[in-house]
Amino acid sequence: MPAAIVNPERVRFSSELSGLNMRPLWERVVRLKPGTAAVPAIWRWQAVRPQLMRAAELISTKEAERRVLHLENPALRGTNCITTTVVAGLQIILPGEIAPTHRHSPNALRFIVEGVGAYTTVDGERVSMRPGDFVTTPGWTWHDHGNVGPDPVVWLDGLDVPLANLFGAYFREVYPQDTQPLSRLEGDPAVRYGSGLLPVDHRPNGHASPLLCYPYERTREALARLARNGEPHPSHGFKLRYVNPANGGHPFPTMAAFMQLLLRGFTGRKYCSTDSAVYNVVEGCGRVEMGDSDFAFGPHDVFVVPSWQPHRISANSECLLFSYSDRPAQEALGFWREQA
Ligand code: GTQ
Fold this sequence. Notes:
The protein is of the alpha+beta class. Helix content is about 20%, strand content about 30%.
């Protein structure tokens, strides 16, 4: 029982303090323990895809600016957020549509789920998107999207909007034209930064990776080779993180991204870490156990593993799992921890 309840003098004290916008530490009611209010959840492609197609009938990209359905954590209703630190959204763009040019302080990542023929232009450079590609839009870069292919294209958006908001640092601007002029050749960063070499005069000039696209083919090949070369990690299987080749760090100052390969029959050891992670299943079927939840997953499903949530992932067939998390932000601040 709180001390104030049994002591009338303390009750008077607390209510007097309240009038002065003060509160005794010993009566604190806010949550103070590892983890956040977010809970484990899964969004199944089978249920989500028809709603994306419906959104495409109900509103144009022009009217919506970005036709995105946010995946909202059931314990964070009304916030649009999947965790307390990042948002996740599925964006659909139809053939011929253009999502007009804008920029914002939050960093954005795209993980392409379905369809070919879409592109994004980032500060004057065209980036073609193919399923499984990981594409970056660093904070405050101008970006517009288009679809010049024959089919709808869907990708998963991950943004650090809640972090920018937390610091009061959310800014946004609209470009005067729908599309921006191209000023660099497509693939230029891959030429300059993609071979384990750096331009001789490279000066770090920002926080985000100079590579804008990490093609699936190369990621998958790297994991396949890794699996032929050694034993899997007991919790993660074969897992690699996407790297900023200019400094060995993460692709964004706030968000990390990963791809992991689990061979058929793999059962991970229970694991938790303080970063909250959003997963997108690229290939394969399996299960993720998190506390009282036990979700079966299949291709294109999205699930969230909240901060400090013990979980175990297992694979019924060979699985490729993309994920992103707020780990770099926590590492930079000295907060990140893990427990196996
Ligand atoms: O594609 O620029 O999911 O500006 C949210 C805000 C995507 C985008 C989102 C955005 C975008």
